[in-house]
Specification:
The complex is a heterodimer of chains A (274) and B (196). With 274 residues, chain A is α+β, with helices and mostly antiparallel strands. Chain A folds into 2 domains: 32-86, Electron transport complex subunit B, putative Fe-S cluster (3-methyladenine DNA Glycosylase II, Chain A, domain 3, Orthogonal Bundle); 97-273, Alpha-Beta Plaits (2-Layer Sandwich). Helix content of chain A is 35%, strand content 11%. In chain A, the strands form 4 sheets. A two-stranded antiparallel ribbon of chain A has the order 1-4. In chain A, strands 2-3 form a two-stranded antiparallel ribbon. A two-stranded antiparallel ribbon of chain A has the order 5-8. The longest helix of chain A is centred in the N-terminal third of the chain and has 24 residues, at 2-25. The termini of chain A are far apart. Chain B has helices at 2-13, 24-29, 34-63, 72-94, 96-102, 113-124, 129-158, 169-183, 189-194. The longest helix of chain B has 30 residues, at 34-63. Chain B is built from 9 helices and no strands. The radius of gyration of chain B is 18 Å and the shape is globular. Classes of the chains: A alpha+beta (274), B mainly alpha (196).
């Protein structure tokens, strides 16, 4: 018994000493600014910046490969701290972006077949026809985006469409990358009017697939006071630089593709709390 | 003759990856490019050879005389973990590009069952020191052979027209199993050519 303890203890000490020697002999110089920057970053290691974790981004910023405001989660506050460490100025006029699901189909979009497989949108999208929905741009509703979010900001709504909690969303973009149909896009947080469709097929074709798909009738284009909404490639698109959130297009849309978020945004938070 | 048997056996007949199915994690993880596979295989050969040497010494000079054979697993893991950490530290300083390319798979050599496997197999076969070291080296070389061939295949697969559902891991696993079946042809090699 005693021999066992001694053997393990001595071996452990010997190898520990060897490693300590190696650590000193083969030491790699580390930039102190990288350590300070890493401490200033949120530490969520979400990878939204495109670097491997917060320490990866800190090293990149210290080396000059990434700008001081590269962390979308930290936002302007963290960018200011990082900039002060580096001793530079940073542009703080960019508006926060949040995710928005650009599909309003759900039960209103036809199913091509019943999908019984791995409950992941990416597996569904690998099936014939790019998924079980008749529309190849539709949200498949299996929750890949919900699982991709590191901040718990997106959850599955009652009709099989994901709902984004704007308060929690940091605009990291992980859900955008996770969706196999590219249903999710990042929009400015103040944007309140959205076109919930990305279908590029002509109107009659879309009507067969989905009750709320854009039919490219251009009614929205005609009523928009600023010309922010345009029908491109058989689908309406809003340019948020011009949009004033007046909601005229949402009122005019005959198939209710365009929606306007209500004044009381607590509707989203209430659904999130339930 | 026995040394030749160990060498041929470890590299071809009882290939650690394709016949014994050990060391699969880094095998699949680092085989996307031939360059990184080459770097990884050098690290694995080095670790397996040196680990065989040190673990033989530990087993026969420390554990057996003191009747502590039951500490074998713990002691071997201690040796292997320290060795891999040492390799990692040296590599980080001397070859930073290779270090970054290998990434997480370098410390994964520690939990790589091939390294512990070759050490335990040498003990099980009651090899002497030279035989044990040769076994370790042969295992490493066999592992390298397998991963280099596989990396070459995967580089070509990346440019081929594969059905969407099969891209990435599925086709990699299937290709590896086909390689394993092919290497099955080496069974009986030794008997045919060396024991005639």
């Amino acid at each position: 018994m005693l021999e066992a303890i001694l053997v393990m203890a001595i071996s452990g000490a010997f190898f520990g000493g060897l490693l300590a020697y190696a650590a000193r002999r083969f030491a790699v110089p580390v930039d102190e600014r990288a350590e300070a920057i890493a401490a200033a970053l949120p530490g969520a290691n979400c990878g939204a910046c495109g670097y491997p974790g917060c320490s990866g981004l800190a090293a990149a910023i210290a080396a000059g490969h990434a700008p001081a405001d590269a962390c979308p989660v930290g936002g302007p506050r963290v960018a200011a701290v990082v900039a002060s460490i580096l001793g530079v100025q940073v542009d703080t006029t960019r508006e926060r972006q949040v995710a928005r699901v650009s599909c309003g189909g759900g039960p209103r979009c036809q199913d091509r077949y019943v999908y019984q497989g791995i409950p992941d949108c990416r597996a569904d999208a690998a099936c014939p026809g790019q998924g079980h929905k008749a529309c190849s741009w539709a949200c498949l509703g299996l929750g890949t985006c919900v699982r991709a979010c590191p901040f718990d900001a997106i959850f599955m709504g009652p009709d099989g469409l994901p709902v984004v909690d704007k308060e929690k969303c940091t605009g990291c973009g992980k859900c955008v990358a996770a969706c196999p149909h590219n249903c999710i896009a990042l929009v400015p947080v103040s944007a309140r009017v959205h076109v919930l469709c990305r279908n590029r097929n002509p109107g009659p074709v879309v009507r067969k697939m989905c009750q709320v798909g854009c039919i490219a009738c251009r009614a929205c284009e005609r009523v928009c006071p600023t010309g922010a909404i345009r029908v491109r490639d058989n689908c309406a698109e809003i340019d948020y630089a011009l949009c004033t959130s007046c909601g005229a297009c949402a009122q005019k849309c005959p198939v209710h593709t365009i929606v306007m978020e209500p004044e009381q945004e607590r509707e989203v938070s209430a659904a999130a709390a339930s | 003759m026995k040394l030749a048997a160990i060498l041929i056996g470890g590299i071809l007949v009882n290939n650690f990856v394709l016949a014994r199915f050990l060391g699969l994690c880094p095998f699949f993880g680092v085989s996307r490019q031939v360059e990184t596979a080459l770097g990884m295989s050098m690290a694995v050969v080095f670790v397996m050879t040196l680990a065989s040497f040190i673990t033989w010494l530990v087993q026969n000079l420390v554990l057996v005389p003191l009747h502590l054979e039951y500490l074998q697993t713990a002691a071997f893991i201690l040796v292997i973990a320290a060795l891999v950490q040492f390799v990692e530290t040296v590599l980080r300083k001397t070859a930073p590009n290779l270090y970054t390319a290998l990434g997480i798979y370098l410390p994964l050599i520690t939990t790589n069952c091939a390294v512990l496997g070759v050490a335990l197999l040498s003990v099980q076969q009651r090899y002497g020191l030279v035989e044990a070291v040769l076994n370790g080296m042969a295992g490493g070389v066999g592992w390298s052979l397998a991963i280099l061939l596989f990396a070459g295949i995967r580089e070509r697969l990346a440019l081929s027209d594969i059905p969407p559902a099969m891209r990435g891991w599925p086709i990699a696993f299937i290709s590896a199993s086909l390689m394993a079946i092919a290497f099955f042809g080496f069974q009986g090699l030794f008997k045919e050519f060396f024991l005639r």
